[in-house]
Structure formats: structure tokens, C-alpha cells
């Protein structure tokens, strides 16, 4: 079985986000970018499936600007076998919408015929939480979202999902799209030798047009602003003072 | 203009708070029809019919719709979609599972976690863990939107609107439910509680989380946790508050042994009053706290619990 892992290049989760003064978005010029943290978990899971003999090839794909090459090299250094970069934007500030991303990945799935697509649950930049579900819809496949456990048993997979009420386990037909949550695994770091080896692994370059996908956004960004800041608070000296203040504020 | 709202129904029970908050957001868009779908849904439909602003309820009871499996629920919604301009739901894990699937089947984008309605095409939503708020205008024929419940007030009550029974769509037969692991609790539900007490890595162990729970029980509060506390096994996953957990905005939020990473703040910084108890005076949580107490939680929390008595 081949496993396809879509990985997104996003602002590093430790970087302080700055909204651009003109309201067009968040400043991404000269900012540290990394692989979306959920996608690292997806890559890790794919590699573990390969190590367990349940998968024979792991293909990482990324859609966006040319610089997403670096993200794919990280996936290759972690252990993916090859990578596909689909260039769909020129400016690092252009975010390709989940619907267009899902359509492009569908094109890749049609060519590559994987048995499993492992996405992240959510990209930490647009916080959409949509691409995996959209891809499953376009393919007519089952979906197992927000997975904290995945167990492939022949032509079905058992997926334990993190839901509002706790945990839900479902059984989905293969092929399937799984979106991974934080507690599925702990991703490995790429070792230096593997980083060197990754440079020689195949990385194909395509464009959105190769898949006949129009990436024109459906959502026009009207404005991007900073959220309202909270007024400064105070430090209290003791539990008694805290209780008094909370009573004064009518909070208890 | 007509709006179809997917109600939050679990095992036949309506989640009234989440659904009523989504109704108040949806009412700004047009005439609201609520869809209650599930293996059993009649009781939920009867209850939803009494939410002020609901003009009709569709009740779809069918075994294939049980446990809110995405594939069958999405197929049902798509079969109804022609009659509606907006298809909306509260931004729960169930809705986030289903709505993007619906949107893709309709060839439209989804607008996740909207925190504001500007007009019928235009919505506000937080991005980058709430570090920015974006206003987006949709050019799609159908708008598929989930609403962040923490920013809308629940709609009130009305005399019951009519309920119409409908069938399920053809079951795609792609998935089956196996089991739920849901911890029963007498505490209020996290996303609707007026008071939330959350513990972080600083609490140190699952056993010591009892300190947090005792304080919560004294206040009639729900219990939350940081990701670090959940990852460390101190607390179950459904207690996680944050960018990738639950978003809460109670009247009072008490953060204990939580440093205040931006991913945690994303889930609680709209709370009315924030209290932080942390032994590190430089912890970022103090920057959003109305009242900060620099103290060892193992002394301060029991004392606070006692003095609230
Ligand atoms: C993709 C992604 C998504 C994430 N999503 C979330 C999310 O949804 N929710 C979330 O919470 N986090 C999330 N995180 C994790 C987040 O970045 C932080 O790692 C996490 O919030 C830290 O949890 P914490 O504050 O409990 O732990 P720490 O940062 O370790 O802080 C523990 C605090 O406890 C204090 N402390 C220790 N002992 C005591 C004591 N005896 N008395 C008083 N204080 C004490 C310490 O001073 C410290 O400030 C996410 C991270 C990523 C990368
Ligand atoms: N541009 C992209 N390139 C590759 N994968 C993506 C891209 N956008 C989204 N994804 C995948 O879809 C997941 C969810 O993203 P989103 O729906 O944008 O929150 C991510 O974790 C990735 O696995």
C-alpha cells in the first residue's frame, strides 16, 4: 500500500504573528516557516506504517509556493520516499484554499492510487480544519478525522477520534482519508545523515494547471486585523485578596 | 433567504446550548430551518422547535444516521441543499467533521469557526490561533459556515415551530460506528459553563488534578486542561482548551499551573474574567489575567477552595 501525506508549509508555531499594517494578512516575509505540526505527526504515522510492513511507499506532497520544497525535504529526511511539489502560488502570502488543495490532491490520488491519505487535522495558519474531509468527499472515500489511533486491518481501518464528548472509534472502508490529531504519536527528528540522504530523494515539480485545478479563491479577504487586546490586570498578594477582588467583581 | 442549521444531536439528545447559540448567529442570515439527524432524533427535534427564531425543524431518524457518521450525514445535507443559501452548524467536532465534506460535495468553500456575521456573504473568523481576525466574503452560491459558539449568545424560547419528518439519503456505506468512550460527569459542560477551572502541566499528575476538580466543584465549574496536561495523561482529551481543543468564554476562567502559550490562550482569552495561579511571575498567562496570583498551586488552590466555602 502506498501512503500519501499532504504537508503544508506554515509559520513556525513558536513565531510571534504580526498582522500587516495594510490589513491584507499576516506578515510572512523573513519569518521562520516550518512543517505544519499536525503534518509532522502524519508523516511519522506513515513512516511507522512502512516500518511495520503495512505500507510500502510514503509520498509527501505540498501545494503552494516554491519554498515548500524545504518542507518536503523535511518529510523526506524524516523518512518519506519521494515528494511532489505542486506550485500554485508565487507570493508567500498567498494561501491556497482547502477546496483547491483538495482538488489538486485528488488529481495526485488519481495518478498515484494510494490506499491511504494521512492529512493533518488543521493547518495552524488558516485554522480551517477542512482539507482532509473535502478530499474524502471529492474522492467518494470514507474519512476518519481527528485520529488519536489508527489500526489498519485489511480492507478496513479502525480509527479512534478525539471528539467533544471524549473518544469515538469507527471502522472505515479502505481506501480512506485520515486526519491526525496531536496525540497519535510523537514525531521523530530527522538525523543529520538522513537530512543528507533526503537531498538525493526524488522531488517532482508540478503546477496546479497540470491537474486542471483553478486555484482562484472563493473567499475574498476583506480585512485582517489584530484581535482586541485585553486591558491590563493586576497581581494580587494573597488568596484572601483574590477572593475579595473576585467578590467585588461579582465573579463569585 | 433560507438557512439550514445542523443541530448538535448526540445519541438522540439535543445539545441545546450549542444549537441555540448557532441559531442566534444563523438568524442574522435568514429564515432558520433546523435539521435534527440521528438514529433517534424526535426528542431533539421537539426541543429544537422551541428555540426562538427557528421556523421549522426537519427530523431525520434513521439507523444509518446514528453516531453522526460524516458520510451519511453529509449525503443527507447535500440532498436538502438546493433549498438553502446557507448551511450552518455550531463549530463542534461533529460539525467540523461533516461540513467540509458537504461543502466539497457542493463545490463550495467552507467557512470554519466564524466568530461574526457581517452580512449574508461576509464573515469574521479568527486565524493563526486567534492572533488575527480575518473578514472574508464568499462568492459561492451556497455558504457553508460553522459558528464559534463562544461568541454568540444562546437564542431564547418560543412556542414550538412545526416539525417535519424526513428520510435519510442513500447510505454511502463507507463507515461504521464501533464504540464511544465518554466519561459521565455531573459537572457542567465545558463550552457552556459559566465558570471553568483549568489545570496545566504544573499540576504534576493525574492524582493531583483532584485539587483542580475540588476547586471546580466548589464553584460549580467545568474542568479544563492545557494540552500539556492532556498529553501527560493528567486529564482526558475532551478537557483540552485551546487552538486545537475547545474554545470557551465563561464569566470566570481560572488557569492553574498553565504557562499561557498562545495555543492555549486561543481557547480562553475571550473569557470575561481571567484568574491565573502560577509560581513563575514571568509566565505569559499573567499578561491576559485580570487577577494574577504568584504562588505555589499546591498551597494556593486548597486555600482558595477552602475560603470559597
Ligand atoms: C499545533 C499545536 C497545537 C496546540 N494546541 C494546544 C491547545 O489546543 N491547547 C493548549 O493548551 N496547548 C496547545 N498546544 C501546546 C502549547 O504550545 C503549550 O505547549 C501548552 O499549552 C503548555 O501547557 P502548560 O501551560 O500546561 O505547560 P507548561 O508550558 O509547561 O507550563 C506549566 C506552568 O506551570 C507552572 N507551575 C509549575 N509548577 C507549579 C506549581 N507548583 N505552582 C504553580 N505553578 C506551577 C510553571 O511555572 C509553568 O508556567 C499546541 C501546540 C501545538 C504545536
Ligand atoms: N497547501 C497545502 N499543501 C499540502 N497539504 C495541505 C495544504 N493545505 C492543507 N493541507 C493538508 O490539510 C490539512 C488540514 O489543513 P486545513 O484544512 O487548511 O486546516 C493539513 O494539515 C495538511 O495535511
Automatic annotation (TrEMBL), chain A:
<keyword id="KW-0813">Transport</keyword>
<protein>
    <recommendedName>
        <fullName>Electron transfer flavoprotein subunit beta</fullName>
    </recommendedName>
</protein>
<dbReference type="GO" id="GO:0046395">
    <property type="term" value="P:carboxylic acid catabolic process"/>
</dbReference>
<dbReference type="Pfam" id="PF01012">
    <property type="entry name" value="ETF"/>
</dbReference>
<dbReference type="InterPro" id="IPR012255">
    <property type="entry name" value="ETF_b"/>
</dbReference>
<comment type="similarity">
    <text>Belongs to the ETF beta-subunit/FixA family.</text>
</comment>
<dbReference type="InterPro" id="IPR014730">
    <property type="entry name" value="ETF_a/b_N"/>
</dbReference>
<keyword id="KW-0249">Electron transport</keyword>
<dbReference type="InterPro" id="IPR014729">
    <property type="entry name" value="Rossmann-like_a/b/a_fold"/>
</dbReference>
<feature type="domain" description="Electron transfer flavoprotein alpha/beta-subunit N-terminal">
    <location>
        <begin position="23"/>
        <end position="215"/>
    </location>
</feature>
<dbReference type="InterPro" id="IPR033948">
    <property type="entry name" value="ETF_beta_N"/>
</dbReference>
<comment type="function">
    <text>The electron transfer flavoprotein serves as a specific electron acceptor for other dehydrogenases. It transfers the electrons to the main respiratory chain via ETF-ubiquinone oxidoreductase (ETF dehydrogenase).</text>
</comment>
<comment type="subunit">
    <text>Heterodimer of an alpha and a beta subunit.</text>
</comment>
<dbReference type="GO" id="GO:0009055">
    <property type="term" value="F:electron transfer activity"/>
</dbReference>
<dbReference type="InterPro" id="IPR000049">
    <property type="entry name" value="ET-Flavoprotein_bsu_CS"/>
</dbReference>
Automatic annotation (TrEMBL), chain B:
<keyword id="KW-0249">Electron transport</keyword>
<feature type="binding site">
    <location>
        <position position="278"/>
    </location>
    <ligand>
        <name>FAD</name>
    </ligand>
</feature>
<keyword id="KW-0813">Transport</keyword>
<protein>
    <recommendedName>
        <fullName>Electron transfer flavoprotein subunit alpha</fullName>
    </recommendedName>
</protein>
<feature type="binding site">
    <location>
        <begin position="226"/>
        <end position="227"/>
    </location>
    <ligand>
        <name>FAD</name>
    </ligand>
</feature>
<comment type="function">
    <text>The electron transfer flavoprotein serves as a specific electron acceptor for other dehydrogenases. It transfers the electrons to the main respiratory chain via ETF-ubiquinone oxidoreductase (ETF dehydrogenase).</text>
</comment>
<feature type="binding site">
    <location>
        <begin position="240"/>
        <end position="244"/>
    </location>
    <ligand>
        <name>FAD</name>
    </ligand>
</feature>
<feature type="binding site">
    <location>
        <begin position="257"/>
        <end position="264"/>
    </location>
    <ligand>
        <name>FAD</name>
    </ligand>
</feature>
<dbReference type="GO" id="GO:0050660">
    <property type="term" value="F:flavin adenine dinucleotide binding"/>
</dbReference>
<dbReference type="Pfam" id="PF00766">
    <property type="entry name" value="ETF_alpha"/>
</dbReference>
<feature type="domain" description="Electron transfer flavoprotein alpha/beta-subunit N-terminal">
    <location>
        <begin position="3"/>
        <end position="181"/>
    </location>
</feature>
<dbReference type="InterPro" id="IPR018206">
    <property type="entry name" value="ETF_asu_C_CS"/>
</dbReference>
<dbReference type="GO" id="GO:0009055">
    <property type="term" value="F:electron transfer activity"/>
</dbReference>
<dbReference type="InterPro" id="IPR014731">
    <property type="entry name" value="ETF_asu_C"/>
</dbReference>
<dbReference type="Pfam" id="PF01012">
    <property type="entry name" value="ETF"/>
</dbReference>
<keyword id="KW-0274">FAD</keyword>
<dbReference type="GO" id="GO:0033539">
    <property type="term" value="P:fatty acid beta-oxidation using acyl-CoA dehydrogenase"/>
</dbReference>
<dbReference type="InterPro" id="IPR014730">
    <property type="entry name" value="ETF_a/b_N"/>
</dbReference>
<dbReference type="InterPro" id="IPR014729">
    <property type="entry name" value="Rossmann-like_a/b/a_fold"/>
</dbReference>
<comment type="similarity">
    <text>Belongs to the ETF alpha-subunit/FixB family.</text>
</comment>
<dbReference type="InterPro" id="IPR001308">
    <property type="entry name" value="ETF_a/FixB"/>
</dbReference>
<feature type="binding site">
    <location>
        <position position="201"/>
    </location>
    <ligand>
        <name>FAD</name>
    </ligand>
</feature>
Amino acid at each position: 500500500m502506498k501512503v500519501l501525506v499532504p504537508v503544508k508549509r506554515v509559520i513556525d508555531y513558536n513565531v510571534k504573528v504580526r498582522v500587516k499594517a495594510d490589513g491584507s494578512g499576516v506578515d510572512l516575509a523573513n519569518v521562520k516557516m516550518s512543517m505544519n505540526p499536525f503534518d509532522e505527526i502524519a508523516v511519522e504515522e506513515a513512516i511507522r506504517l512502512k516500518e511495520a510492513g503495512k505500507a510500502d511507499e510514503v509520498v509527501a506532497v505540498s501545494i503552494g509556493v516554491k519554498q515548500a520544497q524545504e518542507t518536503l525535504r523535511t518529510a523526506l529526511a524524516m523518512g518519506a520516499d519521494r515528494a511532489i511539489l505542486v506550485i500554485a502560488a508565487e507570493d508567500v502570502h498567498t494561501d491556497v484554499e482547502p477546496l483547491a488543495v483538495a482538488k489538486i490532491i485528488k488529481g495526485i490520488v488519481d495518478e498515484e492510487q494510494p490506499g491511504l491519505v494521512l492529512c493533518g487535522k488543521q493547518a495552524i495558519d488558516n485554522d480551517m480544519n477542512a482539507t482532509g474531509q473535502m478530499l474524502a468527499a471529492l474522492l467518494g472515500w470514507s474519512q476518519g478525522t481527528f485520529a488519536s489511533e489508527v489500526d489498519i486491518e485489511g480492507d478496513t481501518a479502525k480509527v479512534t477520534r478525539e471528539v467533544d464528548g471524549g473518544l469515538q472509534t469507527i471502522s472505515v472502508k479502505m481506501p480512506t482519508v485520515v486526519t491526525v490529531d496531536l496525540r497519535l504519536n510523537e514525531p521523530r527528528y530527522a538525523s543529520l545523515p538522513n537530512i543528507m540522504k533526503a537531498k538525493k530523494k526524488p522531488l517532482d515539480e508540478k503546477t496546479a494547471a497540470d491537474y486542471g485545478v483553478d486555484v482562484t479563491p472563493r473567499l475574498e479577504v476583506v480585512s485582517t486585523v489584530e484581535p482586541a487586546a485585553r486591558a491590563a490586570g493586576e497581581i494580587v498578594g494573597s488568596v484572601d485578596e483574590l477572593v475579595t477582588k473576585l467578590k467585588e467583581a461579582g465573579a463569585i | 433567504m433560507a438557512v439550514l442549521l445542523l443541530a448538535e444531536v448526540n445519541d438522540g439528545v439535543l445539545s441545546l446550548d450549542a444549537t441555540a447559540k448557532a441559531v442566534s448567529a444563523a438568524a442574522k442570515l435568514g429564515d432558520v430551518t433546523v435539521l435534527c439527524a440521528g438514529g433517534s432524533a424526535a426528542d431533539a427535534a421537539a426541543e429544537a422547535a422551541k428555540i426562538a427564531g427557528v421556523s421549522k425543524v426537519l427530523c431525520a431518524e434513521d439507523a444509518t444516521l446514528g453516531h453522526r457518521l460524516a458520510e451519511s450525514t453529509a449525503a443527507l445535507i447535500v440532498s436538502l441543499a438546493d433549498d438553502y443559501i446557507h448551511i450552518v452548524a455550531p463549530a463542534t467536532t461533529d460539525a467540523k467533521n461533516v461540513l467540509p465534506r458537504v461543502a466539497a460535495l457542493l463545490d463550495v468553500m467552507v467557512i470554519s469557526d466564524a466568530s461574526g456575521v457581517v452580512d449574508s456573504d461576509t464573515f469574521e473568523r479568527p486565524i493563526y490561533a486567534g492572533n488575527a481576525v480575518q473578514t472574508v466574503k464568499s462568492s459561492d452560491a451556497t455558504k457553508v459556515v460553522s459558528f464559534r459558539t463562544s461568541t454568540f449568545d444562546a437564542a431564547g424560547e418560543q412556542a414550538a415551530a412545526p416539525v417535519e419528518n424526513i428520510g435519510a439519503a442513500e447510505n454511502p456505506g463507507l463507515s461504521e460506528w464501533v464504540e464511544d468512550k465518554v466519561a459521565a460527569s455531573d459537572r457542567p459542560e465545558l463550552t457552556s459553563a459559566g465558570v471553568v477551572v483549568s489545570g496545566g502541566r504544573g499540576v504534576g499528575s493525574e492524582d493531583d488534578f483532584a485539587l483542580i476538580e475540588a476547586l471546580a466543584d466548589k464553584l460549580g465549574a467545568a474542568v479544563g486542561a492545557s494540552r500539556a496536561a492532556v498529553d501527560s495523561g493528567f486529564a482526558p482529551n475532551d478537557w483540552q482548551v485551546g487552538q486545537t481543543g475547545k474554545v470557551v468564554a465563561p464569566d470566570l476562567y481560572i488557569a492553574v499551573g498553565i504557562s499561557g502559550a498562545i495555543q492555549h490562550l486561543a481557547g480562553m482569552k475571550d473569557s470575561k474574567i481571567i484568574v491565573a495561579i502560577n509560581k513563575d511571575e514571568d509566565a505569559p498567562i499573567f499578561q491576559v489575567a485580570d487577577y494574577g496570583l504568584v504562588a505555589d498551586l499546591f498551597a494556593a488552590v486548597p486555600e482558595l477552595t477552602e475560603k470559597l466555602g
